[in-house]
């Protein structure tokens, strides 16, 4: 007489667990990569916003912009802002530029390895061409790109981890 077996054998259960585990590991790796790419995107958005913020400050203080009070490279700890801020106080164009660059340097300090550069040049028609550049480290973004390589190995793609956003306008 033949015996019939019902249900799963232990081997079938083991194979199913291994397959599900491999799928879950793939999902976990994908989530880590997505998180790195999301972090990179957020940092880039902050850098772009910081550059536009500085241009807005320069437009608000056109006299200081024309005098060249904003030109320079900004990194590290910001200088202390002038004490002319507050109710009933007025700042000169130079003091306002010092305040703006102090605030901007604080914003740059929030980016990973953040730094900024402001340059300007007078044009022949009396306007000023202003260039604002913001640089930051984009290590999470580079790591996310490397994880998507076809070979699946962590090879150096040659991508630089320092990224720069440059904005040029006429004032």
Compact description:
By secondary structure, the protein is of the alpha+beta class.
Report on this structure.
The longest helix has 51 residues, at 10-60. This protein has one domain (10-170). The protein has 171 residues and is of the alpha+beta class. The model has no long low-confidence stretch (mean pLDDT 85). It has four helices and four strands; from the N terminus they run ααβαββαβ. The relative contact order is 0.16. It starts with 9 loop residues before the first helix and ends with a strand. It has a four-stranded antiparallel sheet, covered by helices on one side. Helix 1 runs antiparallel to helix 3 (93-109) and helix 1 packs antiparallel against helix 4. It has helices spanning 10-60, 62-66, 93-109, 139-147; strands at residues 72-75, 115-122, 128-137, 162-170.
Name the features.
alpha+beta; 18% strand; elongated; 4 helices; 48% helix; four-stranded antiparallel β-sheet; 171 residues
- The portion of residues assigned to helices is 40-55%
If you compute it from the alpha carbons, what radius of gyration comes out, rounded to the nearest whole angstrom? Answer: 27 Å
Count of domains: 1
Strand count, sense and barrel status of the largest sheet are: 4 strands, antiparallel
Uncertain runs: none
Percent of residues in beta strands?
Answer: 15-25%
Q: How many separate helices? A: 4
Annotation, overall tally of beta strands: 4
Order of helices and strands: HHEHEEHE
How are the strands ordered across the major sheet?
1-2-3-4
Average per-residue pLDDT, rounded, comes to: 85
Terminal Cα separation, in Å? 97 Å
- What is the global morphology? elongated
Structural class by helix and strand composition: alpha+beta
So what's the oligomer here? single chain
């Amino acid at each position: 007489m033949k015996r019939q077996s019902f249900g799963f054998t232990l081997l079938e259960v083991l194979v199913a667990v291994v397959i599900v585990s491999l799928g879950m590991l793939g999902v976990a790796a994908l989530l880590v990569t997505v998180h790195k790419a999301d972090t990179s995107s957020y940092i880039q958005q902050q850098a772009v916003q910081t550059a536009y913020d500085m241009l807005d400050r320069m437009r608000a203080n056109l006299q200081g912009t024309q005098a060249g009070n904003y030109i320079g490279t900004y990194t590290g700890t910001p200088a202390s802002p002038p004490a002319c801020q507050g109710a009933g106080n007025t700042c000169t164009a130079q003091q306002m530029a010092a305040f703006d660059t102090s605030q901007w340097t604080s914003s740059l300090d929030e980016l990973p390895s953040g730094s900024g550069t402001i340059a300007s040049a007078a044009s022949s028609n009396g306007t000023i061409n202003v260039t604002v550049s913001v640089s930051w480290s984009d290590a999470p973004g580079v790591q996310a790109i490397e994880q998507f390589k076809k070979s699946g190995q962590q090879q150096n793609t040659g991508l630089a981890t320092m990224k720069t956003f440059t904005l040029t306008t006429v004032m």
